[in-house]
Amino acid sequence: MRAELGRGRGRLPEPWREEAEVVAIGHPAAGSAIIYSIVVSCQRHGKDPHAYLRDVLTRLPTMTNRDNLDALPPKNWQPA
Known about the structure:
Layout: H1 2-6, H2 14-22, H3 30-44, H4 49-59
């Protein structure tokens, strides 16, 4: 899609263009967009976003690349 847009063969609808600009990495609002995405994902999977973030952000500093990260996405997460 990006290649087609770059060649001028397509255009994103106006609301999508504005949103795409907001969530671009490096944009001041990118952090907010990431947090919002996590909260919505938690809600979709019936998880409490506050409990999820508190638990995952507590676990991450002690984890290594050898730990199983499959349990961290909201879809798989279970409270400790």
